[in-house]
Design goal:
It is a single chain. The protein is of the alpha/beta class. The protein has five domains: 75 residues, no CATH class; 106 residues, Nucleic acid-binding proteins (OB fold (Dihydrolipoamide Acetyltransferase, E2P), Beta Barrel), CATH 2.40.50.140; 193 residues, no CATH class; 100 residues, no CATH class; 254 residues, 4-Layer Sandwich (Metallo-beta-lactamase, Chain A), CATH 3.60.15. 50% of the residues lie in helices and 17% in strands. The protein contains 29 helices and 25 strands. Strand 5 and strand 6 form a beta hairpin. Helix 1 packs parallel to helix 5 and helix 16 runs antiparallel to helix 19. It is globular, with a radius of gyration of 31 Å.
Length: 803
């Protein structure tokens, strides 16, 4: 088999699975299967047959006069049976593989679609299941994947089956871990939300079980898994005893794939620098453990079969111990194939081993093709296989060999995953390459010294503490790199996502790979085409970054939430709230080329305003955070305060009447004057109301005040002459029925922007829209127009919508 054929077949199988789970999932199953088999058969028939050389003649046992001319000359070309062209045969074979992949995906999809548990829903049930993963806290309660083995329905009937479910609950996560056998009482449901249902299907899950009670029956029924549970529990307990909380959480992620103890600030810093792949167990961890084990058994002198068996056992133990993360499964499968090849004496190239491992995994678990973690792991490895060596050789011309090798490997992996990152997450930090190169020397010492300290801690806790001091040095260096690099004023590569981004990005990476490996240099025409196509891939507005010519306000389309950016000719940037998504606003700011935020306003601790702020603080330099002075025990507020402390940012809690000047812009705090009590929503009435002005241009950010706070503002206008007039009004509370018409009349803004998304509250309500119209305001809604941009030109507000 040619070196390129297996990788090509794997790529074809991958493409077939994606089509089967995506556009082709409504097809009849047997049609692509028959087409695939027919195409493979045609390829086999058309392939030219090769007759190998005659060993008797080659050995000299045939008289020279009777030998073929090639043998006399020392050349024995293989004899080929006439057949189709290599291009046609290859197309038939790869087309057949791809069509068969479509069929395999359709079969997997039907298996999920014909779920016995889904047929039982909705109903209450008691199930016995084995947890696939640790229960994770979420926005509402907790969740985990579990493999059901027995289910009893409310009518007393019982069924033995094997099916994976999405297990969730409303309370704190139960005290169970992956591998545990649990008994769950709850309600079987098939989600009505199509997006959530598609996400479950991508995991091979058709039904959820909303648990009202979870009882641990015992450890895993499998002895091998139970042994990994024991090791994980022992090592984890030692790590927590030996290391400070922050470093313990980091090591648990690095060594055991357990991110439940990870410090949120560390996680945000790693996201900001593109180092999140270090926070979970990866293929490198498999190599770091397998290498010493194989070295030991080789030194002992065990025969090769014994070495391979021990190696395979070690790989299986690591995969199970770390929870079978996609990257570990990929690395484990590659290690297993390499060990088997070693036993058989048939070593293969890394590209062939990678392709074989991926093909085996996708045959066994076709839904892995939909796992973003698996996609990134495979593409990062493929990038390193294809480009690390040629990039390293070029870097050696300007830097020492070890640094060049690290830079080449890091850049190759980053290039491999960038199109997929832009497709899924729309953002790649520009500092990620430098951060990965700097972080690379700290990862192995952190892991190995950390595990050594944990091992010593099992024997003697004081010795573990002593060894842990050495391990903390590389760990804290890693944390420092992530923290500093995360807020470096380096532009991000951003995109709007979509198939075009993936296609163009992949084509560019493929062309670069060919150029690096062959020395090919594109013509000027090709370079011109690439330069023209690049904006289709990347929409980094930083190309036009810099202070605007006038006061500019962008009310971001963040769905049912609030977030707005103000930029001024003096270079001042002000962010008002962070929206309901953890990353969206940070990505929007990066796309606009923002490097620093002079002021961040956190109006009040509700999720639709607060959730995105911690990521913003981790990724950008911030001058000061303004937030409500009214005390709260909200988890959102605690998280924001922790993020402010982690980043060392100045925080203020102003009251009505206080003002702040940042460059050429002024911020006047109009509300609150006190902490409200006994209103319909005290938190909303306690929200900061900011009147932002630059000269005669005024924007009123009425974030969420309801009737009581608005009525107090009207009293201050009448009694103290408070000026509420503005050119632009950010309408309170997404246009809810919680405003008074007199407030809109007092503001009298020609432009009113409602930040709103799909919701069940009816926002914005007709009465609010009528009141705004009565006040002379033209209403712009983010759910209809996307991000709304207001630029003050010539004394008037010019408004444009994204759509």
């Amino acid at each position: 088999m040619s070196a390129w054929l297996l990788p090509a077949a794997t790529a074809a199988w991958w493409a077939g699975l994606l089509a089967g789970f995506g556009p082709a999932r409504s097809w009849t199953t047997w049609i692509p299967g028959l087409l695939g088999l027919a195409s493979l058969a045609a390829g086999a028939i058309a392939a030219p047959a090769v007759r190998r050389r005659d060993p008797v003649a080659v050995a000299g046992l045939v008289p020279e006069a009777l030998r073929p001319a090639g043998v006399v000359q020392g050349v024995t070309p293989p004899m080929r049976r006439p057949g189709g062209s290599i291009v046609a045969v290859t197309a038939l074979v790869l087309g057949g593989v791809s069509a068969t992949g479509v069929c395999w995906a359709l079969i997997a999809g039907q298996r999920v679609g014909s779920s016995p548990l889904a047929a039982m829903a909705p109903d209450r049930a008691e199930a016995e299941a084995t947890l696939r993963e640790d229960p994770r806290p979420g926005a509402l309660g907790w969740h985990a994947l579990a493999d059901v083995r027995l289910v009893r329905m409310a009518d007393g009937s019982a069924s033995s089956l094997r099916e994976t479910i999405w297990l969730s609950g409303d309370e704190e996560p139960p005290s169970v871990v992956r591998g545990d056998l649990v008994r769950i009482d709850g309600a079987l449901q098939v989600p009505e939300d199509p997006e959530f249902l598609d996400a479950l299907h991508a995991k091979g899950v058709a039904v959820t079980l909303r648990a009202s009670e979870v009882e641990r029956v015992g450890g895993s029924p499998n002895p091998f898994v139970r042994s990994t549970q024991a090791v994980r529990e022992t090592v984890g307990r030692s790590i927590e005893a030996v290391f400070p909380v922050r470093e313990a959480g980091l090591l648990m992620g690095l060594a055991l794939g357990d991110d439940s103890h990870l410090d949120p600030g560390v996680e945000r810093d790693f996201k900001a620098t593109g180092l999140t792949h270090l926070l979970v167990v990866s293929g490198g961890n498999v190599a770091m453990v397998l290498g010493p084990v194989l070295a030991l058994v080789t030194m002992i002198g065990l025969p090769r079969p014994a070495q391979v068996v021990i190696g395979l056992g070690t790989v299986a133990f690591i995969v199970v111990l770390t929870g079978a993360e996609p990257s570990v499964m990929r690395a484990g499968a590659m290690s297993a194939l390499t060990l088997i090849g070693l036993l058989l004496g048939r070593a293969r190239s890394t590209a062939v081993v990678l392709a074989g491992a991926v093909l085996v995994l996708l045959i066994l678990q076709p839904v892995l093709v939909l796992s973003i973690g698996f996609q990134l792991s495979v593409l990062a490895t493929a990038g390193m296989v294809a480009m690390a060596a040629p990039l390293g050789e070029r870097f050696e011309r300007v830097m020492p060999r070890p640094v060049a090798a690290a830079a080449g490997t890091t850049l190759a992996a980053q290039l491999g995953v960038t199109p997929v990152l832009l497709f899924h997450f729309h953002d790649v930090p520009g500092v990620t390459l430098l951060a990965n190169v700097l972080a690379a020397p700290t990862v192995a010492p952190s892991l190995l010294l950390g595990l050594l300290a944990a091992g010593m801690g099992i024997v003697s806790e004081p010795l573990g503490h002593l060894a842990g001091l050495a391990a903390q040095v590389p760990m804290r260096a890693l944390e420092l790199i992530a923290n500093v690099a995360g807020r470096a004023p380096v532009a991000h590569i951003t995109s709007r996502g979509g198939p075009l981004v993936l296609a163009v990005g992949s084509a560019l990476v493929a062309a670069l790979t060919v150029a690096l490996r062959t020395g090919w240099r594109p013509s000027r025409r090709v370079v011109l085409v690439v330069m023209l196509a690049l904006p289709l891939l990347v929409w980094n507005s930083a190309t036009s970054a810099g202070p605007p010519s006038s006061l500019t306000v962008r009310v971001f389309d963040v769905g049912q939430g609030d977030a707005a950016l103000v930029t001024t000719p003096g270079g001042v940037t002000v962010l008002i709230d962070g929206g309901p998504d953890e990353e969206q606003v940070a990505t929007e700011l990066a796309a606009l080329g923002v490097k620093r935020l002079d002021v961040v306003v956190a109006s009040h601790p509700h999720a639709d305003h607060f959730v995105g702020l911690p990521a913003v603080l981790a990724r950008f330099q911030v001058g000061v955070v303004l937030q409500s002075a009214c005390p709260t025990t909200s988890a959102l507020q605690v998280e924001l305060d922790r993020a402010i402390a982690d980043e060392g940012i100045d925080s203020r809690t102003p009251w009505a009447g206080e003002s702040f000047v940042a460059g050429d812009v002024r911020l006047d705090v109009l509300s609150p004057h006190e902490c409200y009590s006994g209103t319909e929503s005290d938190t909303n009435n306690d929200a900061l109301v900011i009147r932002l002005s630059r000269g005669d241009d005024v924007v009123l950010f009425a974030t969420e005040p309801e009737e009581p706070a608005q009525e107090w503002l009207l009293e201050q206008r009448d009694e103290a002459g408070l000026d509420l007039r503005a050119d632009v009004l950010k309408v309170p509370h997404h246009g809810a029925a919680t405003s008074v018409a007199e407030f809109f009349d007092a503001v009298a803004a020609p432009v009113a922007v409602v930040s709103v998304g799909e919701n069940t509250y009816g926002h914005p309500v007709p009465s609010t829209l009528d009141a705004l119209a009565g006040a002379g305001s033209a209403v712009w809604r983010t759910d209809e127009r996307g991000t709304v941009t207001i630029a003050f030109e010539g004394g008037s507000a010019v408004v444009t919508g994204q759509r």
